[in-house]
Amino acid sequence: MSIDALKARIPDYAKDLKLNLGSLANETVLSPQQLAGTFIVSALASRNATVIVSILAEFGPKLSAEALTAAKSAAAIMGMNNIYYRFVHLAGGDYANLPARLRMNVIGKPGVDKVDFELWSLAVSAINGCGMCIESHEKTVRAHGLTTEQVQAAVRIASVVHAVAVAIESEDAMATQPA
Fold first, then answer.
1. 130 is a catalytic site residue
2. What is the residue range of the signal peptide feature (predicted)?
3. 24: domain range?
4. Is residue 3 annotated as a catalytic residue, yes or no?
5. How far apart are CA 169 and CA 142, in angstroms?
6. 112-122 pLDDT, tens per residue?
7. How many domains does the chain have?
8. What pLDDT score does 77 carry?
């Protein structure tokens, strides 16, 4: 399955998603690695098998083996961190003063340029709604020279990929219901 096959699965009421998915696949403000990795981490964070398979088929071959592993690592580690740090942020109190005691070694040695890994972590954090992680990763990518437009492009990709997953999953669920 590819982007075209994925677009064919998007229902007519979500035509804007289909159009956005197509245009974002050709986004030029991100490097090819940043673009492909952002699509992949966003698909993984969407947790929809159809979206994951389609996005991996389209963008997986555009990454080196190391970059693909780094993208998968970003989605995995942020799946953990977004829950933990969202709790810390929302609960307040002394939790922010305690060590997390969670292994996060991949963040220090992601296997790709730090800025790319941080951008992918930002995209996953946007999908998962962790304000503390969004702030941290946005600050880091900006300090590493990414522009506002590049950050926006990554978050636009995350939002559209996630919305496509929601639309497809909703259609699949409704198809199983009696008429």
1. yes
2. none
3. 3-175
4. no
5. 34
6. 999 999 999 99
7. 1
8. 96
**Domain harbouring 129, CATH code:** 1.20.1290.10
Distance CA(105)–CA(155), nearest Å, equals 25
Q: Which of 70, 130, 146, 160 is catalytic?
A: 130
The verdict on pTM exceeding 0.85 is yes
- Assess contact for 141 and 122: CB atoms under 8 A: yes
Query: Of 70, 133, 157, 158, which is the active-site residue?
Result: 133
Q: What is the pLDDT of residues 134-160, one digit of tens each?
A: 999 999 999 999 999 999 999 999 999
Question: For residue 127, is pLDDT > 90?
Answer: yes
**Cα–Cα–Cα angle for 156, 159, 160, nearest 5°?**
85
Buried b (16+ CB within 10 A) or exposed e, 130-166: bebbbebbbebbeeeebeeebbebbbbbbbbbbbbbe
Give the HSE-up count for residue 130: Cα atoms under 13 Å, Cβ half-sphere: 25
State the Cα–Cα distance between residues 60 and 78, nearest whole angstrom: 20
